[in-house]
Amino acid sequence: MINVLAVDDHEIVISGLTYILDKSSNIKLIDGFKNGQDALDQLKSRSIDIVILDVNMPILDGISLAKLIRKDHPLVKIIFFTNSSELQIVREAMHINAEGYILKSDSNEEIIKAIEHVHKGYDYYSFSTVKNIFSNLSKPRSVIKLSKRQKEVLELIAKGLTSKQIAQKLHLSVSTVNTHRNNLINITGTQNSQSLINFAKENNLI
């Protein structure tokens, strides 16, 4: 039996996975959690083979959770189950050696197939994920131009400073710094501060 733990902040997703996995005779969804911290606590006391997790979640996002699982529970395999096939997010998943990456738009059969393949020791990135990666790679990348202030904020974000620390250093309000942070995420098409930093490094913005 393959013991699976699901982590997603949407109850309907947990319910959907329960319905799908109940149809499999060799996969058991042990439990579902709405945030990464609760899931991490449960991993300490339960025997879990695979964790299926979303990327964007409160308290502890999927990428951060996956890194902690990899560090503290190296035998537990990781499958991202998300709406995002953004190239940068997939790269982050690959960088931390996530065994699987499937989209919520993938079929029920593919979800089960991914779990079975990963449990056998294979990596599994769904066809739709791979297709979107190549689609993004083939698109010409527009030149991103940042203002002097945006570059200053970006460089400090990359150094790990909080919005409050950046505000103090640049003599700005915290809300202004947060506005710059959100604008940078929107401009680069990234999901969060960590993917923003990775994108900036890869594209020589810092």
TrEMBL record:
Q: Which UniProt keywords apply?
A: DNA-binding, Phosphoprotein
Q: Which InterPro entries match?
A: CheY-like_superfamily, NreC/VraR/RcsB-like_REC, Sig_transdc_resp-reg_C-effctor, Sig_transdc_resp-reg_receiver, Tscrpt_reg_LuxR_C, WalR-like
Q: Which CDD domains match?
A: LuxR_C_like (cd06170), REC_NarL-like (cd17535)
Q: Domain named HTH luxR-type: which ranges? A: 139-204
Response regulatory domain residues are 3-119
An MF annotation (GO) of this entry: DNA binding
Identify the PROSITE patterns for this entry: HTH_LUXR_2, RESPONSE_REGULATORY
List every position bearing 4-aspartylphosphate.
D54
Which Pfam family is one of this chain's hits? GerE
Q: SUPFAM superfamilies this protein is in?
A: C-terminal effector domain of the bipartite response regulators, CheY-like
Looking at the record's lineage, which domain of life comes first?
Bacteria
- One record GO biological process: phosphorelay signal transduction system
Q: Which residues cross the membrane?
A: none
Spell out the protein name for this chain: LuxR family two component transcriptional regulator
Which organism's genome codes for this protein? Kordia periserrulae
Upper classification of the source organism reads: Bacteria, Pseudomonadati, Bacteroidota, Flavobacteriia, Flavobacteriales
